Amino acid sequence: MTTHTPEGEAVTDLILAIFLAYGRIMKSGDALLDDLGITGARWQILGAIKNSPKTVAQIARRYELSRQGVLWNVQGLVKDGLVEFVANPDHKRAKLLVFTDLGRKTHDEIEMRQRVWSNALGRSLGLQDVEAATRCVQSLGELMKGSETEDADLASSDIS
């Protein structure tokens, strides 16, 4: 049986901390925007189309989510009148998602609240720690990119 190296134990602790932080971030984001009817997942979609229209598939690829999950949230946003589909000049069937007037106003409100929220968090954490944590999490993400099959092969070889 393989045991953790000190580095392996530290990475395990980091991953578990990221899982916990993610859950708390989503819960806090949901609370921050509850009166607007926006969840963290919907917030992510609105942010994806902030600067330019996107297809559901493009949003799913950008955040490495399932198309079905993104589509489910998009359908809720459409129903609530925050976004709409428009013709895509590059593709007949894959329509582009854009803000409605209400959606743009809602997104502007979300951004204002997010700035206040993140400024307060940043003051508590300190710039150097936030920048170091960002670099570490980005590096971990890069190491994970494309390693799903390699990891499965490694895990199965440890079992035998």
Automatic annotation (TrEMBL):
Pfam families: MarR_2. SUPFAM superfamilies: Winged helix' DNA-binding domain (SSF46785). Residues 31-130 form the HTH marR-type domain. GO terms for biological process: response to stress. GO terms for molecular function: DNA-binding transcription factor activity. It comes from the Bacteria. This is MarR family transcriptional regulator. It comes from Methylopila jiangsuensis. The lineage of its organism: Bacteria, Pseudomonadati, Pseudomonadota, Alphaproteobacteria, Hyphomicrobiales.
